[in-house]
Each structure stands twice: as C-alpha cells, then as structure tokens.
Amino acid sequence: MAPDRITNAIDSLITHIVPSDPNDPEDVAQERHDTCFEIVKSIIDSPVSPAISSDVNHASDLIKRKLIQSNPTQALRFSNLYTRLLSLPVLEHKWAILYLLYQLADSPDPSEPLPLSPVKPSAPNYRDAISRDAIKRQGRERTSRASRFEEEQFKEAEQAPDKDQAKAKGAGNVWEDKFEIAADMIPSIITQDFAQKVFLIGKSLNFIRHSCGDAMWVEDYSKAASKELRYGDTATLEAWIDEAYKTTMKRLIDLMANKFHLFKHLQALKNYILLGQGDFIALLMESLAANLDRPAGAQYRHTLTAQLEHAIRGSNAQYDSPEVLRRLDARMLQLSHGDIGWDCFTLEYKIDAPVDVVVTEWGNRQYLKVFNFLWRIKRVEFAVLSTWRKCMTGARGVLQNSDPAVSQTWKSTRGVLAEMIHFVGQLQYYILFEVIESSWGELQKRIQKEDCTLDDLIKAHTRYLNDITHKGLLGAKRRTHSSDEDDRTTYMMQLGEILRFMLSYRDSVDGLYSWSVSDFTQRQEADVRSTTRHNDDHDGRDTPMTGSGGVASEFPVLQERLRHLGASFRTRVQILLGDLAYQPDVDMRFLGVAMNFNDVYQPTRRKTKAAPGTATTARSASTNRGEK
C-alpha cells in the first residue's frame, strides 16, 4: 500500500470521527487534525508498542470475541475474511490495521467524551470510513463468493439438531443430542472421515468449555494452534486436524478421568450397585433383615440411612473416597399394595454432569434392574442359609424325634434345602463372576486404549451393560412372535418363580421347625409329669396328654406342603436347565452344566412354536443324551 493512500485513509477517518468547531480558527483546527494524525501514524508505524501485542492473531481474536458476543452469525464470516487477508502479499502491517480499527470502534473508556464536543458519530460514518479502507477494497472481489459458499456449507453441515428430533430421541444428553452432522451438507472437497474428525473436535471443544468448565484451556489451545494456512494446502490441513483431534480427545478424557473421576464412579457402581463389595452387602442385609420384613409402608428413610451408615462403617467401604460415599443412598421404590420392605428397597448412586453423558438415564435404569435382581437373589440366599443353620443346630437337640415319619420328613427337607442353596450359590457365582467380572474386564480393555475417545467410552459402557443384562438372564428371549406363553418362558419369569418357591419353602420349613419345637416341648413336659405321677403314685401311667392331638394334626399338612413345594422347585429347575442347554451363548450353557454337574436333574425342554429345524435338532440332542 502506497504511503499517500495510507495518509488519505487516515485523513478521511479523522475528518469523519473528530468533530470540528466552526468557531475555531483555521490554525487551531489544523493543529488538532495534525495531532490526531500523528497519534494514528505512531500507532501504525511503531514496530514495538506496549499497548499493541506483537501476536499477529491478537487483533483478530479481539474482534472475533466481540463478534461472538454481539453477532455470532458473523464470526465465521470474519474468520474467512481474515484468513484471506493474511494471504494477501500486497498488504503490510495487517495486524496494526486491524488493531487500529478495533481501537476506533471500541474505546477503552466508553464514557469519556469526544474531543471538543460530546456529539457521537453515527453508524453510517463508521461504515463510510471502513469502506475506504484498503482491506475491504482489495479483498472483496476475491473472497466474497467463495467465503459465502463455504460459510453456508459448514454452517448447515455442523448444526444443532432440531428440538423436535431431540425430544423424539429422549433428549437430555448434551453430548449426543446437542449437535449432529448433516451428511448431505458436507462440502465435496473433504471426505466423510475428515468431516467426522472436524465435527468431533468442535463438539469436544464446546463440551470442554461449557460442560467441563475449562474455557481457559480452550482459549489457550486455540491461540497456540492458530497457524497460517495457504489456499489449497490440504496435506498440511489434514496433518493439523489430526494433531488437533488427538490433543482435544486426550484433554477431554483427562478431564473426565482426573477432574470428574469417571473411572472411580464406574468402579463404585460395580462395588455397590452390582454387589461387588461383598462384606458391605452382607452387613447391610443382616442389619436391614428385621426391618425389611415389615410392610413397605412402615419403612422410614432415616432408618434406612442409619443402617446404610452402619454398613459403611463396619466394612471396607469406610476406606472408600468421601466423594464416592456421599453419592450412595438408600431409598424405597414406588410401592404397591401388599409389598414388604424387601420388594421396594434399593440402593442409589447419584451421578452428576458431565459424567451423566456416559452413565445416562438409560444406564441408571439398567443398573437399577440388575441391583433389584441381585438383591432378590441375595435375599433368598440369606433366608435359606439362616433356615439351614437353624435346622442343623436344632438337629442335635430340639429336632430329635423317635417317630420315623418325622425323621424322614426332616431328612428330605434338609436335602431340598441343600439343593436350593446349591442352586442360588451357582446362580450368584455365575452372575457376579462369569458375567459381571468378565464384562468388567472387557470394559477395562476398551477404555484403557491410548486412542480412546468419549464416544468410545460411551459405546464401551453401553455394551458393558448390555452384556450384563443379556448374559445375566435379565434380557427376554428373542422370538419372531410374541404371546402370553412366550412371556412366561423368559428367564426373568422363570427365575422369579423359582425364587418365590424357595421363599415359600423356607416359610414351610420354619413352620415345621416350630411344630417340632412344640412337639419336643410337650414330650419333655409329658416325661416330667409321668415321672412326677410315678413318684407320687397319684394317677395312672395311661392318662392321655392334653393338647397332643392338635399338634399332631398339623404335621401331615406341613409334610404335604413341603413335598409339593419341593417337587415344584425341581420341576421349574429342570425346565430352566432345558432352556439353558439350547442357548447359543457358551457362558449360559455353562451355567446349566454347573447347576446340574452330577445329573441329578433331568432337563426338560418346554414345547415352543419353533421352526421345524429347531425341533429336529432338539429331538436329536435329546436322543443323544438318552444313549449316553
């Protein structure tokens, strides 16, 4: 740019911006004009000035920030124009020109009056002054069409999704629902993978700034990564995008892991919601057992919270992080008529933003489903083992009876209890170790990769929960048609029936135990009375005992009920083993083998509306087992 053109531009700016007083002499007006001219010229020509940054991008950043605050739609257009300005070789002191325009447009003290007059210049004067600037005059013809086209393409390609579509998806996930790529709007000059990287960089920077609260890092990285790019240099552009992609993803994962403790929260969910912390769960169940036997409406939150604190202090959970323990809570689910505390109790682990983009609402529901299922199994195990210990202790005392029928009933009862303990133990081992621990190991392998992104974390966690619910017998069996009969064949329904039979059997065993204690007490009292009569020689030895007939009449009812419940339990287990034997998943077939390792059960295949080939395969498999 020639010196006279710069001088003319400065003179025009001073004439439009600095008002003149018609009462001033000509020499005073000329002196004021010369003073302003020298100030502007010193700003432009000064090679080093403490008021102006030597960074070529500083002036652009100032203007860009102002545009983002006042008119965000023009920020992208300004970036395109500034890129073209940097590539023009005929202009010198580009940063100084931009900084001068910014200083003129944005005074550091807006309340300071203008020289000689408080009158403010109008907007058209600004536009007229800027229109004479060499930047707009030389760069407009080259860049107007190209910049407008690229601006529209990128603005439409990387846009926020429609609100109606977000609601249809069940919006609320700021990572997945806030932005999306419109594939048909991607410019033809870039590939799909390249566009995906650019999109993830922008989405990650937005997430780091707004959700993670690390706007300072975004600003510093943007300044450090700002470089001059020549038109058509696609190889350099791809290299820079790859570098920015790796840096941004690494920073995001570092924030999620160290600042927001994502991996600690996943470990806590496994320990407490998936019952991995065995001593804590055992102590919690023991302390809550008497309280949860009461109706659900009689449960109080302060009681549950107190028992939860007791279980934490009495187990290794006390050494866990306070950040983890404060998120753990005990509450009651929505209750229905007839529910007891066991049916409604649940543990809850509260997740805050931004970790909730990984552990979503759907993930919380899956964790709740798995916890309720495992809690039911733990409850049955606790009840059956308590009854077993009571029976084994009583066998050496109050349960001793000379009646062969009573002795045989207790022998068969202890056998069925042993079967139930074996069943629930194998089921619990399978879910906790073969399913949850195995899936946890796979999750760790996926999230510990060096190139792992937040999307990879979300996908790995989703697959982790899907594996647990499917292999953990919580997912319904997939069929080509559905009916009421098919609903009854789901593993969840089958296990629910088996667990209910086990609880009913436990209640009947407790009834038999009470009858045996009562019978033992009456026999002891009869022996004492008989001895007393014999010594005093008052009454005959054949005097009947009062009340013995009523106690004896209860035994056949208890005996029949125990026999019926034991047979029903075995039938349900055989049906379950038959279904597991035909599962394509190896781990689920292994569960059936572990439950029936000594072939005490004969697996029964339930009749289903399957394809002819499936029925033929089932018959041939059954024949092979018979031959063996």
TrEMBL record:
What Pfam families does the entry give? GCP_C_terminal, GCP_N_terminal
Q: Where is the Gamma tubulin complex component C-terminal domain?
A: 262-601
* One Gene Ontology cellular component annotation held by this UniProt entry: gamma-tubulin complex
Q: What GO biological process terms are annotated to this protein in UniProt?
A: cytoplasmic microtubule organization; meiotic cell cycle; microtubule nucleation; mitotic cell cycle; spindle assembly
> What are the boundaries of the region Disordered?
111-169, 525-551, 605-628
The family database entries (InterPro entries) matched by this protein are listed as: GCP, GCP_C, GCP_C_sf, GCP_N
Record's compositionally biased regions (Basic and acidic residues): 129-167, 525-542
Has the keyword Lyase been applied to this entry?
Answer: no
Q: Which residues form the Gamma tubulin complex component protein N-terminal domain?
A: 157-259
Instruction: Tell me where in or outside the cell this protein is found.
Output: Cytoplasm, Cytoskeleton
Keywords of this protein's UniProt record, alphabetized?
Answer: Cytoplasm, Cytoskeleton, Microtubule
Tell me a Gene Ontology molecular-function term this record carries.
Answer: gamma-tubulin binding
Q: Where is the composition biased (Low complexity)?
A: 610-628
Similarity comment: family membership: Belongs to the TUBGCP family.
Q: What is this protein called?
A: Spindle pole body component
